[in-house]
Write a structure and sequence with these properties.
The chain is mainly alpha-helical. It has two domains: 63 residues; 64 residues, no CATH class. The chain contains nine helices and no strands. α3 packs across α4. The chain starts with 9 loop residues before the first helix and ends in an 8-residue tail after the last helix.
Length: 175
């Protein structure tokens, strides 16, 4: 057998009746009627009458005792605070747009590297999916650079680009 739930005392019932006279919102009216009825009937009977569960009636009574009519109003739910915002988000934007890291060195960003850099720089733990969502909301994306061979010599590559046209000979068609 569960513990006995406390019923509503006469003082709370009187306060609920006074509040009921001034309330025009149907949700509050229904909840106040539930609190008033709970003073003379069981929570199960009141719940059956109002079409809610018994714990709801008990919860309404406790909230009304503690906070009055404001305890019965729906509280705003709000949204989760963003993990990455303000100064940290602007820093990440600068890193991606400038293709540099926090120390100003050139960087090719991946989501994983970006998450590690944010953790190291700001101490903020952020997952790859959350980072991708944040970048999307900032209208940014992490681009993948073209692959290159690790033994590539940039000087030879530039020379080849400069002299490529001079090396080509016009194609001759065979007849």
């Amino acid at each position: 057998m569960g513990r006995k739930k406390k019923s509503v005392d006469s003082e709370t019932t009187e306060r609920a009746k006074e509040a009921l006279a001034s309330v025009k919102e149907w949700k509050l009216t229904r909840r106040l009627i539930g609190v008033i009825s709970y003073s003379t009937h069981s929570s199960k009977q009141v719940a059956a009458m109002l079409g809610v569960s018994a714990p709801n009636v008990i919860h309404w009574a406790a909230k009304f005792k503690k906070h009055g009519i404001d305890g019965l109003r729906d509280q705003p739910k709000g949204h989760r605070k963003p993990i990455l915002d303000g100064q940290a988000a602007e820093a990440v934007r600068g890193w991606i747009v400038g293709a540099v890291d926090a120390k100003g060195r050139a960087a090719h960003w991946t989501l994983e590297k970006l998450c590690l850099a944010v953790r190291g720089e700001f101490g903020i733990e952020i997952k790859k999916s959350a980072m991708a969502n944040k970048l999307k909301s900032m209208k940014l994306s992490v681009r993948r650079p073209r692959p290159f061979h690790h033994k590539t010599d940039e000087k030879l590559k530039d020379d080849f680009k400069k002299n490529e046209r001079s090396r080509r000979e016009p194609c001759q068609r065979r007849r």
